[in-house]
Write a structure and sequence with these properties.
Blueprint lengths: L12 H4 L7 E6 L2 E6 L2 E2 L5 E3 L24 E4 L4 E6 L2 E6 L2 H9 L2 E2 L4 H10 L6 H24 L4 E2 L1 H10 L8 E7 L7 H7 L4 E7 L2 E8 L4 E10 L2 E7 L5 E8 L3 E6 L2 E6 L2 H9 L19 E6 L5 H4 E3 L1
Parallel strand pairs: 10-13
Antiparallel strand pairs: 1-2, 3-4, 4-5, 5-8, 6-7, 9-10, 11-12, 11-19, 12-13, 13-14, 14-15, 15-18, 16-17
Helix pairs in contact: 5-7
Length: about 325
């Protein structure tokens, strides 16, 4: 089935009726249940399955729906390489790296961007279609794809943070006046060869603030677009990332409620975002996050910024490095 003239994510059950795109099949054979999950290739070249949507007329006793492995949420996977094997005399295919696929399954939950809300947002604040904005989005897309490739090779998980996360959540896109790409990484996943890997990929280090034990932040220079990587620290009921003012050594802390990570798609790339995106964005930008703000001071504008002391002058050579 092909859908023309509207975003397919906005198609309702009524629109699909009998032609609904198949997502799940459930078959009963004596006392056994067979669950067939249909995977589709999305524009980011990854595989996706939808949630299990039950119509009002569905016989709720047909299957233990709450116990099914697939369907509680949509899911996303890298395309696995399949190999042929034999199971009970049947030729079947399984993922070659089946242990990797099972690990991926445990964190496969997928969130669609909020396309309805994005459409309403652009009705209030028309999308910037200037040549400069279009050029920035293309450069940001290229940088995001490159950063994802570098971190994937290193085995370092990351998520969209700060303005890049806000852009995905608010308008399903990159905010053109942000001028950078923001990523978050847990400090436990930090590797000492991250900087070298980015520089080898053609992204020179712009600045390094903080240290692994406290408020680490890396910034790389892309093609007229800056890549900021914020490292997050676990602190009991909250998590936080740090900031440093180079000229004064002042330290800042940005505090977020704890969150888990889900997959989504941005700029034709499968990436992670906080599953509790609304809480994450509200913590950073306050209850008025849906109103564009083009004048932003990273030291005072964030809703969750806190003063966090001053770096001792004797440490400046190590914790304040600007190139």
């Amino acid at each position: 089935m092909e859908i023309h003239g509207k975003d397919p994510r906005l198609v309702s059950m009524d629109d699909l009726t009998a032609k609904e795109i198949p997502l799940h099949f459930l078959f009963r054979f004596n006392s056994r249940l067979v669950h067939v999950v249909v995977l589709y290739e999305r524009s980011g070249k990854y595989l996706w399955h939808g949630p299990l949507r039950l119509k009002a007329s569905m016989d709720r006793t047909f299957a233990p729906f709450g116990k099914l492995d697939y369907g509680r949420h949509a899911g996303a996977y890298d395309r696995p390489e399949l190999i042929l094997t034999t199971l009970d005399g049947l030729d079947v295919r399984i993922p070659k790296n089946f242990s990797g696929f099972l690990r991926e399954f445990s964190s496969s939950r997928f969130l669609e961007c909020r396309s309805r809300e994005a459409k309403a947002f652009f009705q209030l604040y028309p999308e910037d279609t200037s040549a400069e904005a279009v050029d920035f989005r293309m450069r940001a897309k290229s940088l995001l794809h490159l950063a994802s490739k570098v971190l994937s090779v290193l085995g370092v998980p990351f998520w969209l943070s700060s303005g890049t996360c806000l852009g995905w959540y608010r308008q399903c896109s990159i905010i053109p006046y942000s001028k950078d790409v923001d990523l978050g990484i847990w400090i436990k996943d930090y590797r000492h060869d991250i900087t070298q890997a980015f520089q080898k990929a053609g992204l020179p280090l712009k600045h390094k603030f903080g240290k692994v034990e406290d408020s680490l932040e890396l910034s790389f220079q892309g093609n007229d677009v800056k890549l900021d990587i914020f490292f997050f620290y676990d602190d009991g009921d909250v998590v936080w990332n740090g900031g440093t003012q180079a000229k004064s050594g002042r330290k800042f802390k940005y505090v977020f409620p704890r969150f888990s990570l889900c997959w989504t798609e941005l700029m034709e790339l499968k990436v992670q975002v906080p599953c509790e995106t609304g809480d994450y964005v509200t913590a950073n930008y306050g209850p008025s996050w849906n109103v564009p703000v083009k004048t932003w001071d990273w030291k005072s504008s964030p809703f969750n910024v806190q003063e966090n002391g001053v770096w001792p002058v004797r440490e400046w050579d190590d914790v304040i490095q600007v190139y």
